[in-house]
Amino acid sequence: MDESDHCTLCADGALEFAVKKNFPVEFVEGRDIPLDGLNAGLNNSPGDTVTAIAMDCKGNLACAASSGGIPGKSKGRVGDVPLVGCGGYANEYGAAAACGHGESIIRMTVAKEVVYNMQKLNQSAQKPNLTILHQILYISALF
Fold this sequence. Notes:
By secondary structure, this protein is of the alpha+beta class. Helices cover 34% and strands 14% of the residues. The protein has a domain at 49-139: Glutamine Phosphoribosylpyrophosphate, subunit 1, domain 1 (4-Layer Sandwich). It contains 5 helices and 4 strands, in the order ααββββααα. The protein is globular and about 45 Å long. Belongs to the Ntn-hydrolase family. One of its GO terms (biological process) is L-asparagine catabolic process via L-aspartate.
């Protein structure tokens, strides 16, 4: 976002920015179909987020994530995947990627917290994951 003071734009604001900056804009057929039929199985349907962590031959770590979103979400909702430290995070000490309830992941910046625990507390990947899991369960209960 070199041409904006904002870190993230979504929904109509993102569209207006794209048009102003002459980005090509394409509309996908069928994106505005009613979701009534999809909402029925919401609680039983598995998520479709995919994550990956990779290490190159020099030991550099990277992470990636992709999500198709969730049915029935509010217009303009931004999930955890595009937010740094939430759906994924990597540095020279470790890498983590998360999937699950996006709002809880965002509130905790889960991936960053896991790597932070590995870095600052010198913990293995297993232990910070359990620590963060307990914190997520607590945060989820509050909301």
